[in-house]
Amino acid sequence: MTVESQKKRLLIFAVSSILPWFLRRIFLEKFLGYKLHPSSRIGLSVVIPKMLTMEANAKIGDFTVCKSLDLLVMEEKSSIGRFNLVTGHPKSSSKSFVNEPARESSLVLKPYSAVTHRHLLDCTNKVTLGQYSILAGYASQLLTHSIDLEKCVQASQGIEIGDYCLIGSCSVLLPGSQLPDFSVLGAKALLNKKYSDSYHLYAGVPAKPVKVLSEELAYFTRKEGYIR
Fold it and tell me: Which of the listed residues 15, 45, 91, 141 has the most CB atoms within 10 Å of its CB?
C-alpha cells in the first residue's frame, strides 16, 4: 500500500462520513471494495485498511484509528471500542521485512471477541483474537515487530490469542507470543513466548503460569460475548 493509495482511501472514507450508515456502507463497498454486512457498524472513526470485512453485527466504536494494514477481518458480533490505535506495515509499502515473504499485516477478530478501549495494536504481522476473547481494560500494547539486533534489521512475528481468553489492563504482548485457549493474562503482564497450557492465569514480567483455573468458570462457558 503506497502513501498515495492510503491518502486516497482516507479521502474516500472522509467523504463517506457525511452519509447515513445504510448509504455509507454501500459507498465504502463500491469505492474501497470493503465487505460490510448490513448490520455491521463503524462509528466516528478512521478505518482504512487495504481490505475490510465486517460480518453480522460487527462494530467499531468512535475515535478509533485503523490504518496501514493489508487486512482487517471482524467476524460475527466482534467489536472494537473507542480510542484504539490499530496500525501495521503493508507488504508493498517499503523494503522492510523483505526476508518475510509470508508476512501478512492483518488483524483478525473471531466471533464474539472484543477489543475494549484505548489499546495499541501493532499489526505489522498477523494478530488473531480468538472467539469470545476480550482485550479488556485499558492501555494494553500488542507489538508484532522489533529490531533484530544480530542482523540489524526490522523483524516481525505474529501474535495469537486463543478462544475464551481475557487480557487485563496495561499488558504487553511481544512478537511471537501466544496465549492458549481458556486463559487469563493478568494486568500489567509481559507475554513474550508461546504457551500451550489452557485454564491457567498467566501473570508477571515476564508472564508465567501462576494459577490453575477451573474449567467450570462462567467466563469459559458463556454463549454471548458481551458481559453485563
Answer: 45
